[in-house]
């Protein structure tokens, strides 16, 4: 039985997890299970001249394999219908099923996300999380408060109308009386009839793909398929271990995968060759000068979901060390090494300095995050080379300074680098160790 594989982002999202999942799915008989998050994610997969941008749909869909939106995910059925329509226009009909346990982002959750951000702002712009505005926090909050709607219950129960009417009336009181926000009587997010007619439409579209995820995973296992668990967001945004409160609301670490069906998994971390983040919160290794502009331009660092310019910095080892420990990482993928090409020197954030004290791992306390300054080590950079030839030649064809950069990361974290990528296209990579089998997809 092939081991389950979990792909975990080790920074603040956007590490390139989607393309790693796509490669793994493409390489062998498998099923991809997305285990956390919702349409806040933006996973980009490039195959030949086609670019796929996935939000709710797992990245495994680009490979044509069957995939499952797992029970730890939340779904916005309206957005998912748009996503499927966009894929259909490109002649792609993903084979996907949806766990009945997944919670639904209701129209009022998106409104609540905006209202809560405004409330957090108070007098200080710093207090804003900078959410994607997709209703993620309020939906997970309702799940935990047991006032949410699981998609199976919403679409398959006899008559959701009485509960929907009560919930919509409650949310209106919450907005108007607690948050002091006027919501127009005809706003469809708080109009029970409008919400009910959307639910009827969702039922038509999605009831046929609802499954019991436990049975679906068990069946894939019985068929000898490899199970690939696709994380969303990243470790730094994990609700348990991330940079709270500047986090998302899902369990993005390996625990989220195990809670949603992964058995004794091989845990693979994914980090870009530099760091990036969208939204607010401390980012000790952040760059602000023309080096940042160059990385943003070369790496096209704009959010897939919101289009916001991403903040960039040097690769952050304190955060990576914590991710390695919590997730028991068995290996690390470093993506986008081509983006850093042609810099004379590359920085590595090897530790944080807190009031003169050196810290090897990312802190827990929010104030410590704010005070942390980076300890940077500079290493020789690499030239922009013939990356096609490197892909053909495999690991040994990588430039010597790239290998030295990786060796330094291994020396400082104990993590083996098992793959690196140097272009968005599926074939632009070198792999070894537990991912050596991927070389066959070249
Ligand atoms: P939320 O997930 O929309 O609640 O946003 C919470 C924080 O996570 C914000 O800083 C977002 O920018 C960030 N975030 C959420 N999803 C992603 C992602 O897929 N990539 C990068 N940042 C994300």
List keywords for this structure.
442 residues; alpha/beta; ten-stranded mixed β-sheet; five-stranded mixed β-sheet; 19 strands; globular; binds inosinic acid
List the topology elements:
Blueprint: E1 5-9, H1 17-27, E2 30-34, E3 43-47, E4 50-54, E5 67-69, E6 74-75, H2 77-89, E7 96-99, E8 103-104, H3 107-121, H4 136-145, H5 151-156, H6 161-178, H7 192-206, E9 210-211, H8 213-222, E10 226-230, H9 254-259, E11 266-272, E12 274-277, H10 290-299, E13 311-316, H11 317-327, E14 331-335, E15 345-354, E16 357-359, H12 366-371, E17 373-380, H13 387-393, H14 400-413, E18 417-421, E19 429-431
The structure holds inosinic acid.
The site of inosinic acid has 19 residues, from α4.
Please provide a written account of the structure.
With 442 residues, the protein is α/β, with parallel strands linked by helices. Helix content is 34%, strand content 20%. The protein has 14 helices and 19 strands. The protein has helices spanning 17-27, 77-89, 107-121, 136-145, 151-156, 161-178, 192-206, 213-222, 254-259, 290-299, 317-327, 366-371, 387-393, 400-413; strands at 5-9, 30-34, 43-47, 50-54, 67-69, 74-75, 96-99, 103-104, 210-211, 226-230, 266-272, 274-277, 311-316, 331-335, 345-354, 357-359, 373-380, 417-421, 429-431. The protein has a 10-stranded mixed β-sheet, sandwiched between helices. Strands 12, 13, 15, 16 and 17 form a 5-stranded mixed β-sheet that branches. The chain has a two-stranded antiparallel sheet with strand order 3-4. A hairpin with a 2-residue loop joins strand 3 (43-47) and strand 4 (50-54). The longest helix has 18 residues, at 161-178. The chain is globular, with a radius of gyration of 22 Å. The two termini are 25 Å apart. Inosinic acid binds next to helix 4.
């Amino acid at each position: 039985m092939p081991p389950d594989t979990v792909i975990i982002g080790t920074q603040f999202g956007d590490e390139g997890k989607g393309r790693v999942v796509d490669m793994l799915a493409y390489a062998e008989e498998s099923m991809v299970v997305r285990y956390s998050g919702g349409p806040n994610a933006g996973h980009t997969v490039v195959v030949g001249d086609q670019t796929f941008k996935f939000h709710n749909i797992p990245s495994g869909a680009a490979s044509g394999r069957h995939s499952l939106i797992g029970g730890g995910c939340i779904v916005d059925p309206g957005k998912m219908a748009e996503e499927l329509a966009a894929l259909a226009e490109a002649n792609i009909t993903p084979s996907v099923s949806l766990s009945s346990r997944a919670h639904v982002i209701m129209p009022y959750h998106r409104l609540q996300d905006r209202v809560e951000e405004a409330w957090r702002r108070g007098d200080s712009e710093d207090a804003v999380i900078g959410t994607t505005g997709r209703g993620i926090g309020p939906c997970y909050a309702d799940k935990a408060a047991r006032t949410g709607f699981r998609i199976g219950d919403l679409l398959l129960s006899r008559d959701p109308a009485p509960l929907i009417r009560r919930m919509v009336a409650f949310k209106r009181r919450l907005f108007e009386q607690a948050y002091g926000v006027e919501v127009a009587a005809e706003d469809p997010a708080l109009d029970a009839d409008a919400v009910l007619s959307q639910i009827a439409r969702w039922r038509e579209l999605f009831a046929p793909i609802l499954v019991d995820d436990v049975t679906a995973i068990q069946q894939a296992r019985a068929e000898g398929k490899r199970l690939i668990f696709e994380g969303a967001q990243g470790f730094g945004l994990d609700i348990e271990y991330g940079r709270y409160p500047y986090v998302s609301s899902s369990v993005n670490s390996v625990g989220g995968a195990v809670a949603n069906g992964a058995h004794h998994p091989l845990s693979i971390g994914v980090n870009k060759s530099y760091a990036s983040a969208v939204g607010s919160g401390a980012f000790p290794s952040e760059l602000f000068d023309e080096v940042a502009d160059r990385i943003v331009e070369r790496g096209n660092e704009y959010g897939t979901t919101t289009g916001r310019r991403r903040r960039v910095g040097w690769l952050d080892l304190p955060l990576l060390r914590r991710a390695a420990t919590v997730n028991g990482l068995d290996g690390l993928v470093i993506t986008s090494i081509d983006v850093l090409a042609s810099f004379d020197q590359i920085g590595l954030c090897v530790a944080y300095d807190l009031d003169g004290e050196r810290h090897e791992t990312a802190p827990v306390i929010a104030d410590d995050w704010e005070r942390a300054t980076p300890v940077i080590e500079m290493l020789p950079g690499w030239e922009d080379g013939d990356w096609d030839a490197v892909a053909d030649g495999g690991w040994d064809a990588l430039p010597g300074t790239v290998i030295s950069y990786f060796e330094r990361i291994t020396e400082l974290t104990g993590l083996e680098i098992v793959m690196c990528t140097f272009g968005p296209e599926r074939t632009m990579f070198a792999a070894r160790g537990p991912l050596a089998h991927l070389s066959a997809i070249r």
